[in-house]
Amino acid sequence: MLRAENICCTLKNGRKILDDVSFQLQKGEICGIIGPNGAGKTTLMKIIAGVLKPSGGSVKVEGCLINQMKRRETARKIAYLPQTTHAVPCSVYDSVLIGRKPYMTWHPKQEDRSMAEDVMDELGIAHMKDKCVTELSGGEFQKILIARALVQNAEVLMLDEPINHLDVKNQVEIMETAKSITERRNLTTLIVLHDLNLAVRYADKILLLDNGSTLYYGNKCEMDEAHLSSAYKIPIEIKSINKKSYVIY
Amino acid sequence: MRGRIIFWLSLVCLLILFVLFGLKHGAVQNTWRNTLSALVMSGEHEDLEYFIWHLRMPKILAALAVGGALSVSGVILQNILNNPLASSFTLGLSQGAAFGAAFSIIILGAGSLMHTGSGLVFGNMGMIAAGAFCGTMLASFVILMFSFVKGMSAQGLILAGVAMSAFFSACTMLLQYFSTDNQLAATVFWTFGDLSKGGWHEALTVLAVMLFGILFSFRFSWDYNAIQWGELHAAGLGVEVRKIRIYSLIITSIMAAFATAFYGVIGFVGLIAPHMVRLMFKHTGHGFLIPASALLGGVFLLGADLLAQIILYPLALPVGVITAFAGVPMFLFLLMKRSIKNAQG
């Protein structure tokens, strides 16, 4: 279980990036983090992943305080995939295997290699094992990064804008992958999204941020159009068609 | 896998070939028979035995150690600073060494260049080496201090290196302006990278430092692989990026300091060897890149030194001239490749 309490982040000049953000997620749940540009989504992700220290508040995974853990220990509990702009020229296998870094002393052991191979099988990417990452399509590349995060064997999975620059088919495929692994592995998953329809479709809970504050946190079904319109400053409606919710703007 | 085996075998063959030529070739030419007989110390050619065991052997070892040390420091710096053009030369460490040596010669009177029967020697080589070592460490200390500045990016560190490089060059010029002709000649001669400056002690010292550097960087090779993906990715994988960057800067500085202090400024080896390996093996991790660059760097410097001796025989050129001639095109090629890549987005 993931619990974030009263997270604050203030710059030296006094500007507040995050102001008293709190939420709690259970195992097997997906939380979609949405909000306009500059709302503080990525900063919140960095703080939860332990790569950025908050000005105040705490993050706990299974009752353990992230702030007091070493980076290595945090990486065993939280698999964090930041926004990725470039691919490193290395084989698919190596870029998945690197997910075992938090468990390595010098070099990967047989156990690490087997785990990487198992995850590649699970995500159906084993056939491109020897390909160079730079030769992959955007969707394939994102799958490789998700495989790397899974190899970390963490309880929390965090994806920061994983479907940016992908076509509709690949967007759906990546979101389906995220949903199925969350269910299968009983993970707690946080995904930063700009596509409100995908957020409503795949997330169980929604965290709507605006100017560093929580505008809404709760079940996706209870989210009000007014919250969205207020955050994005444009009229937004939520329609239900065939028992499915659609965000129209 | 097959490519790697061929790579290692070719390098070992080249190494043996260069070592044999390095033993045979020098100011005094000999037959293969005499060279081998002197090598096993048969006692038939005492003069030649002296040349081989006291001059040529340490020089060969120095080429391998200096080439390896500069290449490994190049690999690490390129990784932690996320810049393919980073090396101890481009970061201003070599210019720091040149300033240190000039300071020893001109201010501390470490001795001017003297003509002896066997060639040109410095009055007090130990003090000059100590000065060069301090100069390198001073330059790396400043770079290290910059790395502590919160929010200082890897690109910022490179620019700090460029600034340090200009600063030390200006300081050296200032010292040279007020020096005597003899001191000026000694300072300029020192900056010529030359492997015949040291003996067994110097070669073995650089070798020991290089081996330690390889062991250190090999231990953190997967951390370097993670850092390649960017700081955030590496941090998400549990890598203490800041710590690794600081430790690595210290280790690379020590490697470059020892190599430069004893043998002068030998530029571009730290660029050539790592990029040659990267060009040959497009997607390779640091577990292979580090030892491969070390050996390739050593063999390259040994070959460059042989070329420096042969090209204008009987005149032997400083090896730094050859490495610069080979390195500048490589530097420009990398610069162009990077610009094209950036332009393509």
Report on the architecture of this protein.
- The complex is a heterodimer of chains A (about 250) and B (about 350).
- Chain A is an alpha/beta fold and about 250 residues long.
- Chain A has a single domain (about 1-225), classed as P-loop containing nucleotide triphosphate hydrolases (Rossmann fold), CATH 3.40.50.
- Chain A contains eight helices and twelve strands.
- In chain A, strand 4 and strand 5 form a beta hairpin.
- The longest helix of chain A has 18 residues, at about 170-185.
- Chain B has 14 helices and two strands; from the N terminus they run H-H-H-H-E-E-H-H-H-H-H-H-H-H-H-H.
- The model of chain B has no long low-confidence stretch (mean pLDDT about 85).
- Chain B is mainly alpha-helical and about 350 residues long.
- Chain B has one domain (about 1-340): ABC transporter involved in vitamin B12 uptake, BtuC (Orthogonal Bundle), CATH 1.10.3470.10.
- The interface of A and B includes residues 46, 82, 99 and 152 of A.
Q: Summary?
A:
The complex is a heterodimer of chains A (249) and B (345). With 249 residues, chain A is α/β, with parallel strands linked by helices. Helices cover 33% and strands 28% of the residues of chain A.
CATH level-4 homologous superfamily of chain A: P-loop containing nucleotide triphosphate hydrolases
SSE class of chain A: alpha/beta
- In the CATH scheme, what's the topology name of chain A? Rossmann fold
CATH class of chain B: Mainly Alpha
Low-pLDDT windows of residues of chain B:
none
CATH architecture of chain B: Orthogonal Bundle
Q: Domains counted in the coordinates of chain A: how many?
A: 1
Count of DSSP H/I helices of chain B: 14
Extract low-pLDDT stretches of chain A. Answer: none
Report the total helices of chain A: 8
The span between the termini of chain A is: 34 Å
By CATH, the architecture of chain A is named 3-Layer(aba) Sandwich
CATH homologous superfamily grouping of chain B: ABC transporter involved in vitamin B12 uptake, BtuC
Strand order of the largest sheet of chain B: 1-2
